[in-house]
Amino acid sequence: MRSKIVAGNWKMNKSYQEGLQLFSEIETLLAKQPSSNAKAIVIPSFIFMADFAKQAKNVAVGAQNCASEQSGAYTGEVSALMLKSVGAEYVIVGHSERRSYYAETNAVLAKKTEQALQNSMTPIFCIGETLEQRNSNKHLDIIKQQLSEGVFHLSAEQFKKTVLAYEPVWAIGTGVTATSAQAQEIHAFIRKTIKEKYNEEIAESCSILYGGSCNAQNAKELFACPDVDGGLIGGASLKAEDFVKIIHSF
Ligand code: PEP
Questions:
Q1: What is the Cβ-side half-sphere exposure of residue 230, based on CA atoms within 13 angstroms?
Q2: Interacting residues of 155 by C-beta distance below 8 A, sequence separation 6+
Q3: Ligand 1, closest atom to CA 126?
Q4: Is 167 a catalytic residue?
Q5: 139 flagged as catalytic
Q6: Domains of the chain: residue spans and CATH
Q7: For residue 62, what are the β-bridge partners?
Q8: Ligand 1 atom showing the smallest separation from residue 11 Cα
Q9: Is the pTM of the predicted complex or chain greater than 0.85?
């Protein structure tokens, strides 16, 4: 069976003190009511991670980004090796905010994915179309292109260690969620595309998360879709009760 995953992307939110409080609340709620069906991941700022990873009992800790290069003169960058060395197990690669605000191309993201894998972390590779692309019926082509340029250079062994997240850009932080039918349609398309590139076994074992205004009210319906294996959660991961409720939606 595929791994079920709920990951909370905190983005650039919370001071250290606020973050620590939120992290402790999530840990306390999960200690009282453990998540038996889904893996919970907290993805805070880089600078909180080492501390949170030391305290983590019921969640794994991940990073929101990593450098595309291994090491060297890249002022301000944080390498995959650094992240791994302080306890990160997952790295988000290719979030639409990174793609649009920081001009990250599929070619750069392909390198970041490799860096994560070479340092024994699981990349959570994000793909998804804008509203304009959907309205002009280009969304399936865009998703296929993001996959072929961003992750299909990986060997089968590497790809097996990669998680995907379908995040329609029009649903991120907007309060507009994809309907469960829309999510299922695209997740099934992604799985079919993986099968064509690799094989059925690899396609069936790949966890594909949904992201985009997923919250404690709609998670159950989205997670009930046969090809939706969890969620990448933004806004709703900043409230411990909501985040834990989403985790328990499986
Ligand atoms: C995200 O940024 O990955 C995300 C899904 O955000 P939100 O849940 O706030 O739409």
A1: 26
A2: none
A3: 3
A4: yes
A5: no
A6: 5-247 (3.20.20.70)
A7: 90
A8: 2
A9: yes
